[in-house]
Amino acid sequence: MTAFGKLIRTTAFRLTLVYLFLFALFAASLLGYFAWNTRRLITEQITTTVNAEIGEINDIYTRRGLHGLARHHRQPRAAARRQSLPRHHAERAGVSPAMSARWRRA
After folding, report:
1. Which of the residues 16, 46, 64, 95 could staple to 90 if both were Cys, CB 3.0 to 4.6 A apart?
2. Is the pTM value of this prediction over 0.70?
3. DSSP secondary structure string, 49-83?
4. What's the sign of the alpha-carbon dihedral 41, 45, 51, 54?
5. Which residues of 59-80 are buried (b: 16+ CB within 10 A; e: fewer)?
6. pLDDT tens digits, residue range 49-106?
7. How far apart are the first and last CA of the chain?
8. 85 contacts 105 by C-beta, under 8 angstroms
């Protein structure tokens, strides 16, 4: 009989295999729980955010109509774009570098 055959027959080796299997099972179930819970939480947050934005857009459309919604949609994006333009993008967009730097500081 080989040394490996003798090792397999020992109680210590068999208990070690059982504990290794149980550890792997619990570790996999814990990772699965974390993945499931994270996915659920992210989906819930995205759904809440999208529903809030839809409500805001619907409110703006109800109060101001289509033209007001388009105007509201353009204004914040244009201001944010001017404030966050790096120097080379500002020059391409027709904004002077000094003006772009002044917007970033404000």
Report:
1. 95
2. no
3. HHHHHHHHHHHHHHHHHHHHHHHHHHHHHHHHHHH
4. negative
5. ebeeeeeeeebeebeeeeeeee
6. 999 999 999 998 999 998 888 888 777 665 555 555 555 555 555 555 555 454 454 4
7. 82
8. no
